[in-house]
Specification:
mainly alpha; Serine Threonine Protein Phosphatase 5, Tetratricopeptide repeat; 7 helices; 71% helix; 0% strand; Mitotic_Regulator; Sel1-like; HCP-like protein; TPR-like_helical_dom_sf
Length: 126
Amino acid sequence: KQALKLYQKATNLGNIMAQYNIANMYIDGEGVEKNYDKAFELSKKLAEKGYSSGMNLLGYCYDKGIGAGIDNEKAVKLFQKAANLKNNLAQYNLALMYEFGKGTDKDIYQAIHWYKKSAEQGDKFA
């Protein structure tokens, strides 16, 4: 709860990373009760501000049905936008979507391309 208070103060001062951390807390239920609607709304605000991690998180929400219905096509578009901004987690998530054909045609070459991009930036799962 203390972390939430500190993140909220930082958010009020315009700290985007703090807002991102709060959204993740609501998804995971870390220090707060899970609240997918709040997580979705915060992620949406972050994405609208052009924050690549927010775009990735909003894509994750659409992919998993967190705070909204599952919409893999929207997830792919958001992952693509964030991946183009060099967000390594979005690059990894986009690779997964191509590998398994979720929200897009299955394309192993695109999957490999995005896994490589993610790995080049230090993503240990890629």
